[in-house]
Amino acid sequence: PNPTSQLLSLEITVPTTLFDFRIVDITGKVVISKNNVNQNTIDVSELSIGNYQILVKMNNLYYHSKFIKQ
């Protein structure tokens, strides 16, 4: 997992204009959810320190990754 304290960068390799994402904590609670996003950087500075998972929906496909907020 990627440790981060402020910004989470997404590596998006397929051309797209918009995507949706959710960030969930270890209990499964959605802590950030945004639709129609077109930036590859997400500000996570307001999250508490801990482990999280990001779920991305793009072009009707779903991707997920874990990260650590420091």
Sequence-ordered SSE layout with sheet pairings:
Blueprint: E1 2-4, E2 7-9, E3 19-25, E4 30-37, E5 41-43, E6 50-58, E7 61-69
Parallel strand pairs: 1-7
Antiparallel strand pairs: 2-5, 3-4, 3-6, 6-7
What's the tally of helices? 0
Taking strands numbered 1, 2, ... along the chain, how are they ordered across the largest sheet? Answer: 1-7-6-3-4
Question: How confident overall, as mean pLDDT?
Answer: 91
- According to DSSP, the number of beta strands is 7
Estimated share of beta-strand residues: over 45%
Give helix and strand order, one letter per element, not per position.
EEEEEEE
Question: How would you describe this protein?
Answer:
There is one protein chain. The protein has 70 residues and is mainly beta. 0% of the residues lie in helices and 60% in strands. The chain is built from no helices and 7 strands. A 5-stranded mixed β-sheet has the order 1-7-6-3-4, with no helix packed on it. A two-stranded antiparallel sheet has the order 2-5. β3 and β4 (30-37) form a beta hairpin. The relative contact order is 0.36.
